[in-house]
Design brief:
Chain A is α/β, with parallel strands linked by helices. Chain A contains 9 helices and 9 strands. In chain A, strands 5-6-7-3-8-9 form a 6-stranded mixed β-sheet, with helices on both faces. Chain B has about 280 residues and is mainly α. Classes of the chains: A alpha/beta (about 250), B mainly alpha (about 280). Chains A and B meet through strand 1, helix 2, strand 4 and helix 3 of A and strand 1, helix 2, helix 5 and helix 12 of B.
Chain lengths: ~250, ~280
């Protein structure tokens, strides 16, 4: 395999069990918002170390609430670890929450420019990409290019969101089960896009519960349980351990 | 472009590299500001006119109450009250706008912030800059008022950029501080709505500073009053348009130290709270 692009070293992050209602002003200043480790905290992820090389496709498997999405967010840099380090040596395209970054009052075109630029796409590059993005998003969206996003349906937003992310030329793709959204035809389009990006040598980290998705794209699997990495091996090994751990399915 | 990124537990990243990162993302800042202004002006029929109507309506109200009804609020030396009022009020509207908008800079944009890796400081700073452009957009009105009242357009106007720079520094500090705190304690937002309405009376906006200094109050009250860095900043705004004596050195020193102090405090608190803020958003 190629050079390492994602390196996690003893990565850990903890959350509060109780919400901020219990947070006192005093705590904020005494502990800088990172409270003393105590009974009301738990480690969503701890001691995770792994290296992902360029061109690898890694599936992250585990039951709900075991730290999969947290791991993805740490790689994306939208969470800051409490322990250890996470390094990414290439730019990351996170497909975490697809329609999240859109501003209701702006048009589809303006939103695409906005989100694209936040992900580091230059203005000239954006001009070239815009037609491609709207063409990819398909009929109802491409006709609403100059309509404020608030008039878009949920499905249209997701389509546009995926289209933007899919056209980022970032070498690392992070995908968090968003593929489950959209109609069958669009989902197939998403799969095809991911397969195409993979064949171009990009790196993929996919969080999913869907076995066939995982087997389709990934050759390596990371099985996470209760915040720690249990298996880091072939996708079959990881899926097997996951099935053993959760007999109900 | 930036491709090498390392996330480590907080506190290890030095301020200098953070500043460099902010500078690299200045294009993003421009975009956020553009978006805020577009949203504000696109949705209203009157658009840009609102920038003028709002402060003018308030100015007329204050003028009626404090000059017509209570004629005593006039500044000394026969300075035109309307010009005094408007020059201070426009500077205050910027402050008030920031107290309202920057406080929610992180909470209102949570879905954007939690999907994009970009220096989070840009969101509150963007709100301050957007409000600055609204201040700039209203400046022509101030110029017209100044012409009507035959203001001395002279070297005193050089104080204006100083006042604006100090105010910018202070407001960025406040925005960083308040936006991060508001994620942890939503009470901040409500408190700011109160402060927006009250703080104006603790500043020389509708009345001149001399009124406070001559008032029959204990000396320590006057000292506390003048410890507010905004007092010196507003005096600079007044002097820039009205001419006359410059604010005393003590007041200027308070303004400079206070503004820089708030910037440092705001940034330190923002950086300290950032990991918790991201978890909470």
């Amino acid at each position: 395999m190629g050079t390492p692009v994602i390196e996690a070293d003893n990565l850990g992050i903890r959350f509060l069990k109780t919400r901020r209602r219990n947070l006192k002003v005093r705590d904020l200043f005494l502990h800088g918002g990172r409270r003393r480790p105590g009974r009301d905290e738990f480690w969503a992820l701890r001691g995770a170390s792994f290296t992902i090389s360029a061109g690898e496709a890694v599936g992250v498997i585990g039951s709900n609430g075991t730290g999969k999405s947290t791991l993805l967010k740490l790689i994306a840099g939208v969470l800051i670890p409490d322990e250890g380090t996470i390094r990414t040596h290439e730019r990351v395209a996170p497909l975490l929450e697809l329609s999240g970054g859109f501003t209701n009052e702006l048009t589809g075109r303006e939103n695409v420019a906005m989100v694209g630029s936040l992900h580091g796409v230059g203005r000239a590059e954006m001009r070239d990409l815009l037609p491609q993005i709207f063409a990819f998003a398909g009929a109802p969206v491409s006709e609403a290019i100059n309509l404020p996003i608030r008039h878009y349906s949920t499905g249209m937003r997701v389509r546009l969101g995926f289209a933007v992310m899919a056209h980022l030329r970032h070498p690392i793709l992070l995908v968090d089960e968003v593929l489950a959204v959209g109609d069958t035809e669009f989902r197939e389009k998403c799969y095809a896009t991911i397969a195409e990006r993979l064949s171009q040598g990009r790196t993929l980290v996919l969080v999913s519960h869907n076995e066939s998705d995982l087997r389709r794209f990934c050759d390596r699997g990371i099985y996470i349980n209760a915040g720690s990495v249990h298996v880091d091996g072939s996708i079959d090994d990881a899926l097997e351990r996951y099935r053993e751990a959760s007999p109900a399915g | 472009m930036l491709s090498e990124v390392e996330s480590v537990p907080h506190g290890r990243v030095v301020a200098g590299s953070r500043l460099a990162e902010l500078w690299r993302h200045r294009g993003t800042l421009r975009l956020l500001v553009q978006r805020d202004l577009t949203v504000k002006y696109q949705l209203s029929v009157l658009g840009y006119l609102w920038t003028l109507i709002e402060p003018l309506a308030i100015a007329v109200t204050y003028w009626f109450v404090f000059s017509v009804l209570y004629g005593e609020a006039r500044p000394a030396d026969g300075e035109p009250y309307v010009l005094f009022l408007v020059s201070g009020l426009f500077a205050w509207m910027w402050v008030s706008g920031v107290l309202g908008d920057a406080t929610t800079a992180l909470t209102a944009q949570r879905r954007l912030i939690t999907t994009v890796r970009t220096p989070r400081e840009l969101f509150p700073i963007g709100r301050v800059v957007a409000k600055f452009f609204e201040y700039l957009a209203a400046l022509p009105v101030l110029v017209v008022v100044a012409v009507i009242y035959r203001a001395p357009f002279g070297p005193n106007l050089l104080l204006l950029p100083v006042a604006v720079a100090l105010e910018m520094v202070l407001l960025i500090g406040l925005a960083l501080l308040l936006s991060a705190l508001n994620v942890m304690l939503r009470d901040v937002e409500r408190f700011m709505r109160l402060l927006q309405r009250v703080l104006i009376y603790a500043l020389p906006v509708v009345y001149p500073l001399s009124k406070v200094l001559d008032a029959p109050m204990p000396a320590w009250v006057k000292t506390v009053y003048q410890l507010n860095p905004l007092v010196g900043i507003l005096e600079l705004h007044h002097d820039a348009w009205l001419g006359g004596s410059h604010p005393p050195a003590r007041l200027l020193a308070t303004a400079v130290l206070g503004s820089v102090g708030f910037l440092v405090l705001g940034w330190v608190v923002f950086r300290a709270l950032e990991p918790a803020v991201l978890k909470e958003l």
